[in-house]
What we know:
Elements: H1 2-23, E1 36-39, E2 62-66, E3 75-80, E4 93-97, H2 98-106, E5 111-113, H3 116-124, H4 138-146, E6 149-155, E7 160-161, H5 164-173, E8 183-184, E9 191-192, E10 201-208, E11 212-223, E12 259-260
Parallel strand pairs: 6-11
Antiparallel strand pairs: 1-2, 3-4, 3-5, 7-9, 8-10, 10-11, 11-12
Amino acid sequence: xxxxxxxxxxxNLFKQNIINCNMQPAFTVFSRNTYIFxxxxxxxxxxxxxxxxxxxQKSFIYDVVESESTREPEFxxxxxxxxxxxxxxxxxxxxxxxxxxxTKYIAPGIAEFATPENLNRLKSSDxxxxxxxxxxxVEKTISYLNTRVFSIVMNKETEWTIEPWHIRVSLRKxxxxxxxxxxxxxxxxxxxxxxxLENKEFYVTLTINKTEKVxxxxxxxxxxxxxxxxxxxxxxxxxxxxxKIFPENIETTKDAQITTNQ
Length: 262
């Protein structure tokens, strides 16, 4: 009898603890924050002789004026002491969030505060002349170009020879804007139309900011104004391996040279 009562008591206690655990969280996460509210419907002034104003239900409707999540971050200027990808070059004065300036840039030693003393020292030094890239976006641009295969669409009936403006127009269709003087074609001419060149690959050298050079992959595709003469569309052709137009050109995207003219 006592054993049965003891067993039932333990079972009830266990169930009660399970219910309490499900109803209340095991731990609470605290967050320091500050909110500023304003009444959506401000109460009117007291009438003459009135000593107490009874608030209505609409008087307890508030709008958030400011909080930590909606507050605009504060920015301060720092001087980069080394190249930071996506931010700036050595010697650049950039503006970053105040909360990240010290922990992410100054503490690791890749930046310093833009104090008047540091700015004067920067002007008198040659640190700003030593640059890894010509601009902060060059490395990102090179990485983008190295991961793309650009389609060069040429006419199937009319004779043509690949010229820089063909490359410029094809790159523009892909969202890349360059000038003709920034495009360097292979030394051998590429002429068509010729189905032997269909989906074959060649390399074009682009010059960025008259400094960096990067090789991009291009593939020729023939197109006809007559729908019946058009070649079947190849889905995701850039994922397939392609033969080179010039067998001696054995570069791949990873082996493509990225050079800098100083």
